[in-house]
Amino acid sequence: MAIRLTFWGVRGSIPVPGPTTVKYGGNTSCLELRFGEEDRLIVIDLGSGVRELAGHIMKKDLPRGPIKTKVFLTHTHFDHIMGFPFFTPIFIPTTELDVYGPVSYEDDTLEKIVGEQLRYRYFPVRLEELSAKINYTPLKEGSLDLGGGLKVTTKYLNHPILVLGYRFEYQGKVFCTAYDHEPYRNFFDISPEDPSFDAAAVKEGELAAREENEKVQKFFEGADLLVHDTQYTIKEYYAGKIGWGHSYFGWAIGAAHKAKVKHLVLFHHEPLRTDRELTALHRAYVAAIKGKTNMKVTVAQEGTTIEV
Amino acid sequence: MQDKDRVLSIIQTYIAKMPSLPITVSKILQIANDPKTSPSDLNQVISLDPVLMGRVMKLINSAYYSLNTQITSLVRAIIMLGINTVKNLALSTAVLGQLAKKGSFQALNIDGFWRHSLCVGVTAKLIAVKRKKDPKQLEEYFVAGLLHDIGKIPLNNKLSAEYVTALSLTDKEHAPLYLLEERTMEVNHCEVGRLIIKNWNLGPVMEDVVFFHHFLDAYPGAHRDILLTVAAANFFANTYQIGFSGDRYPEKLPPYVFEELGITLDDLEAVEDKANSEIDKAKIFLSVSQ
Predict the structure, then answer these.
(1) CA pair distance B32, B52, nearest whole angstrom
(2) Distances (CA, A) of A56 to A2, A35, A63, A279
(3) The sheet that has A68-72: what strands, in order across it?
(4) Nearest CA to B155 among B1, B6, B43, B7?
(5) Is beta strand A30-35 parallel, antiparallel or unpaired with respect to A3-9?
(6) How far is A210 from chain B, CA to nearest CA, in Å?
């Protein structure tokens, strides 16, 4: 085993506990990655799922020594950072945390954006009172050598704010995230009857959208494991969700297949999606692609682990 | 006489919150406030405002800073950033424009300046088309032309009294404006323009065009083609008096410009109708109808 992935939160937008989300889980994004025999820990996103991960780390890692880990945020929308105040290792003085993530167009720092939650008006402990050592590093597109043969590459995705996809490479295996993300579209391709129709922009927009989509596909090309945004069905997407920054199942499956991904995990489930619906959708898509691809397609489920 | 450091500090403060041109503000507000805005309208209104164009380019290039290539296409910027992000930016820039409306553009006539900038942008692009440049680069020629005089905005708005003096001296002495800017304000619009381009992080091509468009002989760099094109377009706009940005007596264009570009005066004449019709179209577009 080179890379082990465990899901602690798989839901989009907002936690949705309740009887209809018991199977796949109601917590928002949080992924635990473990690398190699050392069991090196990396966390992706601090959604509400990180609370349970924290308990797990305290039990498993703390007895072996101080917690020193890196957290990679895909972006700073609330469902991806809301669990931060409940990540108990931040209250332990020996903890060393490196938080990485994209900073959007505002002037605020990553520390302010994430740490703002630890203010008296929202939470009883203030950021300044945390005893752990926490470093914040804003990320753009690029590559980082994390040492010990682990490398991470980042890629901007398409969402209303800056989002990074992550590509981890370790011992010849590749794990990628592509959420929150929606396909790039040529907005300029409107009816020629429309008074604002601009033929040159339509042409240029088509090229730009195609190139940007190809770049994303290239980014997760050949991945052993890809976790991709599939918040919507195609019907939902075209019925008013265009521009919301999320993909539909068919898009994710098509793009991953073209990129020769070995195992695609459907992720960032729509809050309203029940366990029953999700299972039915998964079955239908698996049946539809049977015999057409060697790619394995599964649904992200809280508490489950995948190894590559 | 102004102290140069003082002038530069006034300008630096102004650049950080530079407003849209009053001439485009109403249309920007109309488009950005409309939830059903078409991307083409958004594209068009931004293309017509040098400040807004610069700010959108800044946004995309600061976000995508580590990419090897500078993004100079507005269409691509809108696709990558999303309509809403660009609309919000347009809105905030336009609101600054509304606040600044009173008392701005005292020395230079806003309509003349806007026409001149647009004419140089359109003409630079037309010259590039004529010379069969890669279609992917055409937008960059337009943007470079549109922005070449951007440095005049802070001078005109923040040092209006001095700018009036500089303009009247050009008439009196029949001398190019940039020399008289230097005499009255210690800086010229090329230098101020470069500060803006640096602040917006628009990359070396725009920086060179803005800084060297009156100093072709001194240009040592790699972006000669686009610089000479903008200089030729600027010469055209001044000669044919399409718009007016204060330079009634510009220096003559060195003969090598036309030679190197492989164009003639006739080619530029042929552009006149097209440039005028583009500007008229823009004018109609900007006259807000609701």
Answers:
(1) 12
(2) 20, 16, 11, 28
(3) A133-138, A96-101, A68-72, A40-44, A30-35, A3-9, A305-307
(4) B7
(5) antiparallel
(6) 11
What B217-220 contacts at long range (C-beta under 8 Å, 24+ apart), as own/partner pairs, is B217/B254
The residue among A293, A75, A297, A104 whose CA lies nearest residue A166 is A75
Give the confidence band of A107 by pLDDT, cuts at 50, 70, 90.
low
- Asked whether the beta carbons of A154 and A203 are under 8 A apart, the reply is no
Helix runs in B33-82, H state only: 39-47, 50-63, 74-81
* A251 inside 8 A of chain B by CB: no
User: Which residue type sits at B116?
Assistant: H
Any residues with CB less than 8 A from the CB of B108 and at least 6 apart, and which?
Answer: B152, B156, B163, B167, B245, B246
Residue A103, φ and ψ in degrees, nearest 5: -110, 130
Cβ contact A275:A24 at 8 Å: yes
- ipTM (interface pTM): 0.81
Angle between helices B4-16 and B189-200 (to 10 degrees): 40
| Residue of A228, A230, A265, A276 whose CA lies nearest to A22 | A276
Range B29-38 average pLDDT: 83
* CA B208 to each of CA B78, B124, B190, B230: distance values in angstroms, whole numbers, following the listed order: 25, 15, 9, 11
Q: Is B132 exposed, middle or buried (0-12, 13-18, 19+ CB in 10 A)?
A: exposed
**Chain A: closest CA distance from residue B206 (Å):** 21
Question: How much is the CA Rg of chain B, to the nearest whole Å?
Answer: 18
Best residue of B79, B91, B289 to probe chain A, by most A CBs closer than 10 Å: B79
pLDDT at B78 over 60: yes
How confident is the model at residue B290, as a pLDDT?
37
Strands A68-72 and A40-44: parallel
The set of residues, in sequence order, having a beta carbon less than 8 Å from that of A185 and lying 6+ positions away, is: A209, A242, B79
DSSP B186-254: SS-HHHHHHHHHHHHT-HHHHHHHHHHTT-GGG--SS-HHHHHHHHHHHHHHHHTT-S--S-SSPPPPP
The pLDDT of A37-52, averaged and rounded, is 97
CB distance B8 to B53 below 8 Å: no
- What is the average per-residue pLDDT within A46-58? 98
Cβ neighbours of residue B284 under 8 Å, at least 6 residues apart? none
Q: How far is the CA of B114 from the CAs of A59, A297, B59, B150, B259, in angstroms?
A: 67, 56, 23, 10, 29
Q: Is B118 helix (H, G, I), strand (E, B) or coil?
A: helix
Question: Around B121, how many Cα atoms within 13 Å sit in the side-chain half-sphere?
Answer: 25
Q: What is the pLDDT of residue B98?
A: 67
Whether residue A215 lies within 8 A of chain B, CB to CB, comes out as no
Helix residue ranges, H only, chain A: 50-60, 110-115, 199-219, 234-236, 249-258, 275-289
User: Does residue A159 contact residue B63 with C-beta atoms inside 8 Å?
Assistant: no
What the block records as the tokens of A101 is 């993530």
C-alpha to C-alpha distances, A165 to A162, A179, B165, B249, nearest whole angstrom: 10, 7, 55, 54
pLDDT in the model for residue B89:
79
- Nearest-neighbour CA in chain B from A263: distance (Å): 28
Query: Hey, is the C-beta of B62 within 8 angstroms of any chain A C-beta?
Result: yes
